[in-house]
TrEMBL record:
This is IQ domain-containing protein F6. The gene is LOC111143770. It comes from Enhydra lutris kenyoni (northern sea otter). PANTHER family: IQ DOMAIN-CONTAINING PROTEIN F6, IQ MOTIF CONTAINING F. It holds the Pfam family IQ. It comes from the Eukaryota. PROSITE patterns: IQ. One of its GO terms (molecular function) is calmodulin binding. InterPro entries: IQ_motif_EF-hand-BS, IQCF.
Length: 127
């Protein structure tokens, strides 16, 4: 009977030991899985941050391109308005000069080239 009790005790001890070993190996496996999951989450977070930065860089490039195009268009429009105003001023000035020359007096003149000299007669009549 003693051997039978000792066998039962040995079986219980072996079962307990195997249970401990299985629980320990499961715990180690769970810890390893947890470490891998943490690593994978950090890799995903880095990839997400890289994608976000790339999208932000692309967006800022596009925004700067839009701003530059808008500035060029505004500059072109301002230059066109300036040139139109300058042309209008030149037309007004030329008409004004013509008008003042017509209302101020009359300029008559004649010129002759003789040998190597120029003879110039100018007569200005003011009214």
């Amino acid at each position: 009977m003693d051997t039978q009790n000792s066998e039962k005790a040995a079986i219980k001890i072996q079962a307990w030991w195997r249970g401990n070993m299985v629980r320990r190996s499961l715990l180690h496996a769970a810890l390893r899985a947890w470490v891998i999951q943490c690593w994978w989450r950090s890799v995903q977070a880095k990839m997400l941050e890289q994608r976000r930065r790339l999208a932000l860089r692309l967006y800022t490039c596009q925004e700067w391109a839009v701003v530059k195009v808008q500035a060029q268009v505004r500059m072109w429009q301002a230059r066109r308005r300036f040139l139109q105003a300058r042309q209008a001023a030149c037309v007004i000035q030329s008409h004004w000069r013509w008008h003042t020359s017509q209302t101020r007096g009359l300029i008559r003149g004649r010129y002759e080239v003789k040998a190597s000299r120029l003879e110039l007669d100018i007569e200005i009549l003011l009214t």
